[in-house]
Structures are given as structure tokens and as C-alpha cells.
Amino acid sequence: MPRSRTVIRGGLVITASDEIHADVLIEDGRVAALAASGTPAAEAFSAERTIDATGRYVIPGGVDGHTHMEMPFGGTYAADTFETGTRAAAWGGTTTIVDFAIQSVGRSLREGLDAWHAKAEGNCAVDYGFHMIVSDVNEHTLKEMDLLVEEGVTSFKQFMAYPGVFYSDDGQILRAMQRAAGNGGLIMMHAENGIAIDVLVEQALARGETDPRHHGEVRKALLEAEATHRAIRLAQVAGAPLYVVHVSAQEAVAELTRARDDGLNVFGETCPQYLFLSTDNLAEPDFEGAKYVCSTPLRPREHQAALWRGLRTNDLQVVSTDHCPFCFTGQKELGRGDFSKIPNGMPGVENRMDLLHQAVVDGHISRRRWIEIACATPARMFGLYPKKGTIAPGADADIVVYDPHAEQVISAETHHMNVDYSAYEGKRVTGRVETVLSRGEPVVTEREYTGHKGHGVYTPRSTCQYLN
Predict the structure, then answer these.
(1) CA atoms within 13 A on the CB side of 294
(2) Quick check: 90 and 443 in contact, CB under 8 A?
(3) What is the value of pTM for the model shown?
């Protein structure tokens, strides 16, 4: 096979650890070398394709560790397929997603994993991996966890919420954590007290409180904090690491901070919706608030300061999207007259990198921290680094040329997600993806889509790289 070479010249290369004006040589889908721009070493790079990145950032492709393509929920399905969802991810500068395969109660983990492989294979524009949702902890399931870790599915999600669907009780959680402690897997936890929340839902509906804003009111921050505390203590008893997904409340951040100060292997993720949206959105009139129904729910705006602080102090390590889009028309509307029937989830896989760049512009985080929380740390957390999440010799050439000065207005009119609204409609942001390479192949070229379904391949993962 003839070697294929690309050189990216003149950009500011930003990774989690460095910023350097450098040229990047790509050979056969991987980063071959970097050299300071204008030096003899850089001038010696030769390639069939040259990308001019003058005045641009050259950053690693984003790693979104939390997406739900084609996910069944409440009698409907998430609106993005693996084809549309990964294409939208690429448009937004994300070149790897880790989605969730679902075990149905009474069925094996393997059956759930096979079903998700069938959905994704041959359809993705960018690379993908899987976590496994464990809905039914039993002796067979526990043995299967060992086998899955060996083949590159190294993280398992459990739910303290959704009784009757995904819910695990404390005993089931403890057993799964004990297994993970032995096999090197990472337990991911949806930490909300679902049993108590169901009581509050029932009582709210009985009082005639049916609007979307009540979704946030019954899923109380204290019940997120309580479940977070309980998950941390169960993990401590099991001697297992813990990763808490979609942290939204300052009280939950406080629980994570305390655990980390005690030296526990506890990690936290938040999402753009909690950083940029609030209960004000849930309260929008004429059922518009349904667009913002997700769990954990949006919180009052004062919680945002604690989330930003957690990201700066590394008490929160990752920003993922929990991308789980449902169209307003025909899907979110299933909950008219009963907020508990609104499908839980929001679109966001295309917006994360831009929103976090806006956070750099606004002074919440540094440029390197942007790359750390969106690319490098999720890659390390889920056993993909340094193949993904950085620009270094030997890494996959998943690279984004990013224009930090371009201005754009986020809108459903222009996004590429398969959903009929944007959660950030009309928001002005500075910064925009210009060109995206996935394993050296151009998926977006100067704001034109040049990728295709089937380019993205399944990527097995090693275990969490933060564990001793």
C-alpha cells in the first residue's frame, strides 16, 4: 500500500499539557511527527495533502464518553441513529463516542452488547466504543462482566433511578462493584434516589402539578446528593472505583469533593446543559419546557458556579453530553398533561466542543483545560489514551482545525442532529470547527461534510488509566 501523508501547517497545537506553534505530519492515519513551525524539521515534512491552519487551533478530536444513539425510552427511541449522531458529532469536532449498550432484565449482557454492535456497525462516521448498562445483577451477569472487560468493554453503568426499568438496589450495586474491583472495570453511576423520587412524582401529579418544570422540582438536588453519597460509600466498601455521571447539583459536587479529599478513586462528569441552562428553561411556557427535560434535571442557576469550580479544581474531571435527543413534536409531547411521561434526554453531541470553547472565552476554564475535560481525560478515563485524546506521535490522527475567532449562532436550522429543536437556540458563541480528520481522513473539510458512514470503527478499550 502506498503511504498516505498529510501535513497541517502553521496552527497552534493545543493538548491537555502543551500549547505550541507546530506543524503536524500524519502518515497512514496516525500522527507521525510534530515540529515547531518554521524550523528545518518542519520544513522537511512532505505530503500529498497540506492543510493551512494559520490563525487556527489544531486540537485533538473530542471524546464524548456519554451518548445514547437509538436508545429506547418510554415507548419511543432517541431520534439520532448511529449514522446521524456520529455525523453530527463530527460536525461538532468530536471524533470518538462511547455509547451505552443496554442489558434488558432477564437477558444476558452479551445479548444487549450484540444488539448495539448490530445498530452501530457500518453506520458510524467516527470511531465508537461501548459501555454496558447492567440492569439485572445475578451470578451469570457478574461472570459476563469479567469476559466483557477482557474484550474491551471496561465500564458498566448502573442506575439508582428508574425503578422497574434500569434500577439496581444497594445489594445489586455492591455485588457489581465488588466484581469491578476484581476485574478492573469501572462502575458508572446514575446517582438519584429513584424510590423517593417516584413518591414525589406521584404526589405532584395528585396535586395537579403536571407541567415540565415539576420534573425538576421532584428530582430534588438533595436526592442526587444522597444517592451520590451512598454510591461513594458502597464503592468504598467494595474497594472499587466509581464514576458518577451527569452531576448537576452543588450538593453532589460537595460529596465528590469530600471523597476525593479522602483519597478515594471517585470521579465526576458534568454536561453542557448543567453549565449553560437552568430551571428557567424548564419553566418556559406552552410546554416548551419539555425540551429541557433530562435526568438528572436542570438546576437553579446558582448551581452553575459550583460545577465550574469543580471543573477548575478537578473535582469534576469530564464534560460529556449525555446526548439523548427526542423531537419536541411527537416525542416530548407524549408528556403533555403528565411531566413523568416526557422522554428524558436532550440533544448536544454537536455543541459540546463549541460551548466549552465559549467557556474559555468567558474565562471559566483555560484552553488546555478545555482539551483536558473534552478530549484527554475522557480518553484516559475509558482506556482510549494515547490512541485518542491527544496529538502525539503514534496517536490516531483524530484532529480538528478550529477557528477561535469565527462567530456562530447555535440553531436547529443549521445543526446536523436529527432532532427538531436546539437546546441552545439563538445562543451566540465564538469559535467554530473548520476541518475534522478521523484517523487522517477528512470528515469535515472547511465546513463541508466529506465523511461517510462506515468510516468509523469499533474501538475496544483498556481499563481506566487513573487507577493504581
Answers:
(1) 30
(2) yes
(3) 0.98
Instruction: Answer whether 307's CB lies under 8 Å from 275's CB.
Output: yes
Give the residue among 360, 396, 451, 315 at the shortest CA–CA distance from 63: 396
User: From CA 71, how far away is CA 78, in angstroms rounded?
Assistant: 5
From residue 266, give the alpha-carbon distance in Å to each of 125, 182, 219, 285, 463. 32, 17, 23, 39, 15
Report the run of H or E that residue 196 belongs to, with start and end. Answer: helix 194-206
Concatenating the DSSP letter of every residue in 358-395 gives: HHHHTTSS-HHHHHIIIIIHHHHHTT-TTTSSS-STTS
262-276 residues labelled b (16+ CB within 10 A) or e (exposed): eebbbbbbbbbbbbb
181, 234 Cβ separation under 8 angstroms: no
**Sign of the CA dihedral with 272 first, then 273, 277, and 279 last:** negative
Give me the phi and psi of 260, to 5 degrees please: -70, -35
Q: Are 293 and 282 within 8 A, CB to CB? A: yes
- What are the φ and ψ backbone dihedral angles of 31, each rounded to 5 degrees? -70, 125
Alpha carbon 48 to its chain's center: 34
pLDDT by position in tens, the chain (length 468)? 557 999 999 999 999 999 999 999 999 999 999 999 999 999 999 999 999 999 999 999 999 999 999 999 888 999 999 999 999 999 999 999 999 999 999 999 999 999 999 999 999 999 999 999 999 999 999 999 999 999 999 999 999 999 999 999 999 999 999 999 999 999 999 999 999 999 999 999 999 999 999 999 999 999 999 999 999 999 999 999 999 999 999 999 999 999 999 999 999 999 999 999 999 999 999 999 999 999 999 999 999 999 999 999 999 999 999 999 999 999 999 999 999 999 999 999 999 999 999 999 999 999 999 999 999 999 999 999 999 999 999 999 999 999 999 999 999 999 999 999 999 999 999 999 999 999 999 999 999 999 999 999 999 999 999 985
Phi and psi at 170, nearest 5°, equal: -60, -35
β-pair type (448-449, 441-445): antiparallel
Integer-rounded Cα radius of gyration of the chain: 21
CA angle, residues 271, 237, 174, in degrees to nearest 5: 70
